[in-house]
Amino acid sequence: MIVWLNGTHGVGKTTTSALVQPLLPDSRVFDAEKVGETLMDITPGLPGTDNFQHWPPWRQLVVETARRVLDYTGGTLVMPMTVLVERYWREISSGLAQHAIPVRHFVLHADQDTLRGRIAGDAHLGPSTFRLTYLEPYAEAARAWLHDEAEVIDTTHLTPAQAALRIAEAVRS
Questions:
Q1: How much is the CA Rg of the chain, to the nearest whole Å?
Q2: pTM above 0.90, yes or no
Q3: Would you give the DSSP letter of residue 78?
Q4: For 86-113, what is the mean pLDDT?
Q5: CA–CA separation, 124 and 113 (whole Å)
């Protein structure tokens, strides 16, 4: 099984995934961003883009890597990854379904003011204009399709540990 944590950059997916993992027996965290980083390291580079998710190999390799890891280890993969393009989500989720891999899709949500505050106060990455540029695309995806495709966890007034507990309880129930 895959527990996919979606949501905009800066909402707390990586932090929450690290807290979910010990709450789910036989689980591992797989950050699909590492697949994108690998593709970005190819030289000479792949065709120019502002987001590695636009490269079809990224979406295909995320599916294939998750499948291969699960075939090898079994259990659950906890995957923190923002996917705001509906077509990309459908490609990934249908690819996983073709391999009979169930997906529990959660969206970590917070109101815009809370998100801006978290991004500005991030102790590890510092303020990030990159993260801020995704606030409106996230809001649009949330309105258009994303919140209808997932279990939404409003983290506006939750700690990451509280959000992780809610996710783990939902998965176990």
A1: 16
A2: yes
A3: E
A4: 98
A5: 20
